[in-house]
Amino acid sequence: MFPLELLKQATETDQQIAQYIVNHQEAVAFMRVRELAEKTHVSPATIVRFTKKMGFASFPELRVTLKQHLAQRGQENQRAEEITYLETTSFPSNFNQKIEQLIDILDQASFIHCLGSGASGIMAQYAQQRFSSLGYRSISSLAAFLPYVSTKQEQKGDTIDEVCLLFSISGETPDIVHVANYLKNTAIYTVSITNKEANRLAALCDVSLSYDAPSNRHSHSVDMSSQLSAVYIIETLAKKLYLKNYPLSSE
């Protein structure tokens, strides 16, 4: 925040002001000169002189720097929380093998359906956007009954050219399970993306991509469980599809 060389040369009063600012950054970022002077028991003129000694043109400039520092620290803390969350998330031992197999199927698909409801519906929309940005024909929906999903009525075993990704944290969402049950005897290749591997949705789909992460459901209608694991799966699929089509692209 303040250059160490300048602090070493600062007076005891200036060092006390600097210490107060460092210990109360959130508050000082919105203070006026007079307010900080009262908190540090010095005159407003002393605050102004301290500001200039520390290399700032004015006190408002110091406040702007403080706000930028706080914003950067907030982003770093968020990234640290995300990394910690993913470190506590475990994927099955055959996760990478399933991903590689699915990449080949997705790459050859004429159409990719992405379905989900609630928070998982947002993940379905995000996946659709990622696939579409790579040039794959894709659509997402939150609807329980999907006319376009039934466009491929051939029996299981026929050539696969459509894929349906079904998102559900619990794997027990009635609407999504209903769709998976409807599709199980068609040529549409179904993929479940769920927390935990043992659930009805995973049992109905051709392949299941699961993760083992802490659940945070407060009630039937309030589920605060993190979707970072689902985002990780989507990003992994998108990245591998991109590298498959542009193998010489640099990171």
UniProtKB/TrEMBL annotation:
GO terms for biological process: carbohydrate derivative metabolic process. Gene3D superfamilies: Glucose-6-phosphate isomerase like protein, domain 1 (3.40.50.10490), Winged helix-like DNA-binding domain superfamily/Winged helix DNA-binding domain (1.10.10.10). It comes from the Bacteria. Residues 1-73 form the HTH rpiR-type domain. Residues 102-247 form the SIS domain. Pfam families: HTH_6 (PF01418), SIS (PF01380). PROSITE patterns: HTH_RPIR, SIS. GO terms for molecular function: carbohydrate derivative binding; DNA binding; DNA-binding transcription factor activity. Keywords: DNA-binding, Transcription, Transcription regulation. InterPro entries: Homeodomain-like_sf, HTH_RpiR, RpiR-like, RpiR-like_SIS, SIS_dom, SIS_dom_sf, WH-like_DNA-bd_sf. This is MurR/RpiR family transcriptional regulator.
